[in-house]
Design brief:
Layout: H1 23-45, H2 55-62, H3 69-87, H4 98-108, H5 111-124, E1 129-136, E2 139-146, E3 157-163, H6 170-173, H7 177-187, H8 191-201
Helix pairs in contact: 1-3, 2-3, 4-5, 5-7
Residues 29, 33, 81, 163, 165, 167-168 line the site of manganese (II) ion (MN).
Length: 202
């Protein structure tokens, strides 16, 4: 994860997630949307004390402050998108591994039930937002957040996320969010990243 206000490189080639997520979608989603959040935030914090802060500190400094909502939205969206790219990998998906696999069985009963609950959270996030697998005091949970909101500010440790803003899937799936979510869960989730995040959460 980047700790500065910048557009980090994608962790794979722009065509590496096709056909689940096309190169065209990534060129817009990463190259236009994610980049715009970075460009916007750099303008908003230029010349202020926040300009030299790590991204996570910027987010935590402005969350919940009505007069800083623009800074929060852009900063949190930078963090969420970088986290999303790392939540995916070519030839990912399938059954989880390691401590995350044990945590999923403990929390959801089975991987099959986890898949249903994760997809349901992604489907029932009304409008724009995110579905997350998090660790909350050692317990794995599925949560959803609207717009730019992020578990970074709630004391939960994010393990994986799926972006369910329409810009994440409309070029490839049009209105079929369910097909996008199912394909991401089955073919792209990066369990190595989830395990690294869980280990860091302690
Ligand atoms: Mn997005």
């Amino acid at each position: 994860m980047s700790h500065h206000i910048e557009l980090p490189p994608l962790p794979y080639a722009q065509d590496a997630l096709a056909p689940v997520i096309s190169a065209e979608t990534l060129s817009f989603h990463y190259g236009k949307h994610h980049k715009a959040y970075v460009d916007n935030l750099l303008k908003l914090v230029a010349g202020t004390e926040l300009a030299e802060q790590p991204l996570e500190a910027v987010i935590k400094a402005v969350v919940g402050k009505p007069d800083r909502v623009g800074v929060f939205n852009n900063a949190a969206q930078i963090w969420n998108h970088t986290f999303f790219w790392n939540s995916l990998k070519p030839n990912g998906g399938g059954a989880p591994t390691g401590a995350v696999a044990k945590g999923i069985d403990a929390a959801f009963g089975s991987y099959e039930n986890f898949k249903k609950e994760f997809a349901n959270a992604a489907m029932t996030q009304f409008g724009s937002g995110w579905a997350w697998l998090v660790a909350d005091k050692g317990q794995l949970k599925i949560v959803k957040t609207p717009n730019a909101d992020t578990p970074l500010t709630t004391g939960q440790a994010a393990l994986l996320t799926i972006d369910v803003w329409e810009h994440a899937y409309y070029l490839d799936y049009q209105n079929r969010r369910a097909d996008f979510v199912a394909a991401v869960i089955d073919k792209l989730l990066n369990w190595d990243f989830a395990n690294a995040n869980l280990a860091r959460a302690g």
